[in-house]
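Project outcomes to date are best conveyed with an example. Our students and postdoctoral researchers have been running inverse folding experiments weekly, and each run begins with a structure described purely in tokens. The record below, which covers 207 residues, was selected by the lab manager from last quarter's runs and is presented without edits.
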């Protein structure tokens, strides 16, 4: 395997994108190395670009809509296998020991990490991820479809999950934009009322 990889990084707040070459990183204990197959672009990447996240350390490789497969595993990784397809989203891992974690509310972990902000993300050929950040993705789902599910997809699925809507009910999606268009493949409800009619996006909603 090539020991070098390409990545796109931001080296200072307000800095330009830099296409750089760096060593392929090795996973530590409880971590895996992901061979990135696709990474979605999220508006939240601008937090890195513009320096809007307090305490963010530079240089930083953004990207938290990652789809790929496990390329190498560190020590103490037992529930995953090399070659397994995985996704990595905004949630970059949790501690399992704080009060929120012990309640099962991992998203509110006081020690939680954010992918592409607290550690380098998917705008590179490889990235390191803690196992607590991994989601298994099915083999038949193309990487370019799976990646955006890791952030935009989770966001809209959570809204749908908490909406009270059930199969067969009519739902309205106000704005088929970066988040709204992720509803379209998620919704298995029989009817979708689209309230935003930008032509390029409405064609996606019809399919
Ligand atoms: Zn995002
Ligand atoms: Zn925790």
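After processing, the design step wrote out the following sequence:
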């Amino acid at each position: 395997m090539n020991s070098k990889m390409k990545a796109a990084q931001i080296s200072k707040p307000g800095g330009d994108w830099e296409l750089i070459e760096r060593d392929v990183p090795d996973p530590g204990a409880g971590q895996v190395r992901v061979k990135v197959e696709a990474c979605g672009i999220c508006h939240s990447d601008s937090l890195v670009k513009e320096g809007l996240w307090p305490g963010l350390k530079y240089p930083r490789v953004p990207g938290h809509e990652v789809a790929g497969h496990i390329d190498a595993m560190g020590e103490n990784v037992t529930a995953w296998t090399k070659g397994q397809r995985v996704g990595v989203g905004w949630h970059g891992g949790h501690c399992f020991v704080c009060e929120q974690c012990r309640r099962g509310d991992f998203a509110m972990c006081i020690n939680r990490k954010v992918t592409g902000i607290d550690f380098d993300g998917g705008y590179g050929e490889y990235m390191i991820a803690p196992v607590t950040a991994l989601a298994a993705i099915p083999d038949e789902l193309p990487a370019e479809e799976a990646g955006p599910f890791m952030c935009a997809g989770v966001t809209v699925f959570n809204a749908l999950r908490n909406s009270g809507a059930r199969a067969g009910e009519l739902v309205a999606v106000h704005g088929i934009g970066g988040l709204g268009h992720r509803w379209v493949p998620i919704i298995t409800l029989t009817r979708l009322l689209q309230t935003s009619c930008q032509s390029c996006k409405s064609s996606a909603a019809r399919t």
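The domain at 4-140 is CATH 3.90.180.10 (Quinone Oxidoreductase; Chain A, domain 1). The two ends are 41 Å apart (CA to CA). The training component of this project remains on track.
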